[in-house]
Structure formats: structure tokens, C-alpha cells
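Limitations
The C-alpha cells in this dataset are predictions for the assembled complex, not deposited experimental models. Users should treat interface geometry with appropriate caution, especially where small molecules or nucleic acid strands are included. An illustrative entry is reproduced here so readers can see what is and is not provided.
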Amino acid sequence: MEIFAKLGIDWHSIIVYVVNFGLLAVILAYFFTGPVLKMLDERRKTITDNLAQAEKIKNEFLAEKKNADEEKEKLRADMESQMSDLQKEMEIRRKEQEESLELKKTRMIEEVRSIVDEEKRGILKSAEKQTIELIEKVVLHVVSNNIPQDVVKNSVADAWKTYKS
Amino acid sequence: MIPDLTSALIKDIIHFLKKERTFFSAPNAEKAEQMIGSKIIARHLSRETESSFVNDLGTTIKILSNSEDFSGSNLLKSLGVFFVEEFSLIFDQLDKDFYRSTTTERRKKLDQLLPHGAAFMAELRYFISLYSVQEMTEEIVVFLQALFKSPRVLTQSPIECDRETKDAIRRHFGLKLPKSFVAFSINAQLIGGIRFFIDGKVVDRSWFSRIQAIHRLKELV
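Predicted assembly:
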């Protein structure tokens, strides 16, 4: 006990201290702890509620986002599909047009060729006719003038040779 | 013409046989030719026997009297061959100048071309001097058609063919169409070249046909 006395520890003080502390604890417990606890509970509850709400909102948001993503994906797929269809159709139309142009080109070339051939034939025919007319004129001119008897005689001999051969 | 010539020929043969009684046992074609004037007929006679000749003579007379089928008589056949092979050579020498000359000049020429023989040759000379080329040719062609069914061959030229060409033509048709007598005529319309009518078919190598061909070509173009 002297040790405790040397240390300054007084059992009467300690008891007073303990009673004091006890009294304080009771008062605090009665007046503060309850409300504080209540407040803390309320706060906890509020926080929990908020958290739950936030979680809910977050989930809703996520769900919405997922829907939106799905919608977006669907739209994107749609669009891609439409683009692909459009491209195919464009390709088909392009080919059709090319074929049509090619056909037109071929027909035009054929028409031009036939016109050219027709013109050529006409020119040849005309040249042929003129040549024959000229030959006829020359021959008639030759035979209408006096042909030397030697020439006629030779013609008989030549014609005979041709016939014999 | 043919009956008269045949009669003259028979007369010559009988006259000859009277002189040459042993002819059929020892035939002498050269003597016969001197008398008759034709190598071919003399050769035919030298191949006959007495009996065959007499039979043939009877047949010939009957044919001439009744104008029957000539092909039954060997004498007429030999006459036909005479026209084709011997007479044609003489006939081709009768050019346009001959036919333009007087009768006296013609007879002189014929005496040169047909010197020997008796009645037959005399008859032949007579007909040549009397008939035109076309008439003589027609008589001979008809005779040959009756005898051998020979085709008609007519050669047209713008001027008279020379002797060589005529010979060549006769030789050619002599091989191609034996026993045919080629007739020659002049057709100035041909202008040049030559044209043949062979048994109804035409082979035209004349200048006129070529001019017509040019006309036709002009119409077609």
C-alpha cells in the first residue's frame, strides 16, 4: 500500500473516481448514448437505404445500359445487314447496268458494222456496174468498128483451141 | 440426090463388074477405085462376095424404091462412110469463091477435084455444081441420120474457116461422133469466135455470146 501511496494513488480518490466515472457513464448512457445510438442507427439506416437505393439505381442503370447496349447492338446489326443488302443490291444493279451498257455497245457496234458493210456493198456494186458499163462500151466500140479479118480469123482459131481443150 | 447418086454408083459397079468378071474371086481394090472414084466404096466392094453383093444390091434397090430403112443396105452404108471420110475433104475445098463463080468455072474446079470415075463422079459433080452448100449438107446429114442415126453437128463462124481448122474440126468430131458430117456455116453476127450445135446442144464460144453475157451481168448488178 505504501507503494501505491508513493505513486500518488489514493484509494479514496480511486473510489471517488470510480463512482464519478460510473455516474458519468450512467448519465451519458441515459442522455447521450441512446440518442446517439438512435441517431447512429438512423444514420446507418439512412446510409443503408441510400446505398440500397444507389444499388438499385445502379442496377436499374446497368439494366438500362444493358438494354440500350442490346438495342444499340441490334440496331448496329440491323444497319450492317441493311448496308450489306444495299451493297449487294448496288452490286447487282451495277452489274446489270454494265451488262446493259455492254449489250448496247455491242448492238451499236453491230449496227455500225452493218451500215458500213451495206455502204461497202453499195460502193462495190456501183463500181461493178460502172466497170461493166465501161467494158460494154469498149467492146461495142471495138466490134462496131471494122475488126481486121486477121483478128476475126485468129479468134476462130483460138475459140477452136479452147473448145478442144 | 441420094437415090440419083446411088443409081449412078450401081451403074458404075455393074459396068466395072462386067469388065472385071473375076473381081470377087481376085479383088483388086485399086482398079475398082479407078472406075468408081472412091477408095472407100472400092474397099467395101473388094470385101464382098458375089452372093452377098447381089443380095445387097437387091436390098438397096428395094430400099430406094420404097424409101425404107437405109441401114439395111451395106452399099448405102459404104456411101455414107464415103461422104464422111472422103467427100468431106473435097467439100471443104469448095470455098465461097467457088460458089460465087459461074457454072463453067465451077465445073472446071470440080474436074480438078474429082478427076476420075464415071457416072457416080459425074453425078456428084453435077450436084455440087447445082446445089448450094447448105442444100448438099442437108441432104448428106439427113442421109447419115437415116443410116447411122448420126447426130447433127453444125459449126458457125463469123468468117469462113480455113482448110486447116475445118480439117481439125472434122477430125475431132470424127473421133468423138463417128459417122457424123460436120456442116459449116457463116454467121457474121458472131463477130468473132466459133459456135457449135451438136445434136441440139449449143456450145457457144463466140464474141457475141460474151457481149450478151456482159449485158446480162449488167442487168443483174
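Some entries come with short summary sentences. For this one: Chain A touches chain B through 24 residues (CB under 8 Å).
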